[in-house]
Amino acid sequence: MNTSTSSLPTPPSTPGATSSLPRIAVLATGGTIAGAAPDAANTSGYQAGVVGVDQLLAAVPALSTVARIAPEQIASVDSKDMALPLWTTLAQRINTLLATDDVDGVVVTHGTDTLEETAYLLHLTVKSDKPVVLTAAMRPASALSADGPLNLLNAVTVAAHAAARGQGVLVAFNNRIHCARDVVKTSTYAVDAFQSPEIGALGWVQDGRVEFQRGVVRAHTLASGFAIDTVWPHVEIVASYAGVSRIAVDALVAAGVRGIVVAGTGNGSIHQALQQALAEAVSRGIAVVRSSRVGSGHVMRNGAAADDALGFVSAGTLNPYKARVLLMLALAAGHAAPAALQRVFDTY
Questions:
Q1: Binding residue per annotation — 224?
Q2: For residue range 236-255, what is the model confidence (pLDDT) as tens digits?
């Protein structure tokens, strides 16, 4: 539910805040960045999503020197509870805003738990080359040394910068700029919780300066063949581990899933009991994608699971959670055969 106007406010009479400043929409969804606890020293026992977007912005007066802000409260959720309908709403709203001449870029405030999934979804479904930047916080707004205000300022700074255009969806966190495809959460508590472990960050932002040190290579946004939809194919994730049974796969097949992503060991290797169940799932028309639970590196095609023989697809460098996002979009777009799905994973 929207609680703030989406129209652009008149810029305040702050030095540097003129009508020539870029117009950035800030869409709030909740999360730790909007969290509060009764004790400023408490960074874990807080309630997420209780601070509204106007209060978030008021805590960062320097924003008025960077951009003209259009605030909008899209949701107020703990991102652990992110749901597919909210993904649809968020993507559709961003596309609507960016299709107008009134908005030069979008910043999304989000919880850290599922930020990497939302960012990758938007990376594939936003249909504009205007900047879209997600940010978040590891400490609630009420905490000592809260990291949200600086992360928000940096995110708006990136979204307002010309070099961010055409880079797809970005994540600005702890002074670094990450590509939505690469970034993952790597710590449960640290303020530098987001990293791009395989190939590193795209660049950095500090004290108003933005620098990109490499560009995005894989297809995204305008070059993506995917569109957001209101109907999501049912895709789930299972893990391989010592002594795993086939119970979860059999239950998912019985429930009518259209796809299963496997968080395999090592190079996406799968326990023989689980592999047999997944091969049977493929024979029933269910897509199976091999990813890895390791955290970095890529799953090689025809590696440990002999993909051609079993009809499995390699996720490449995508972790299981991002692989699920891509598989849902691919199935919704009509890519169902293993060869077609492999081309999708090789492209995006």
A1: no
A2: 999 999 999 999 999 999 99
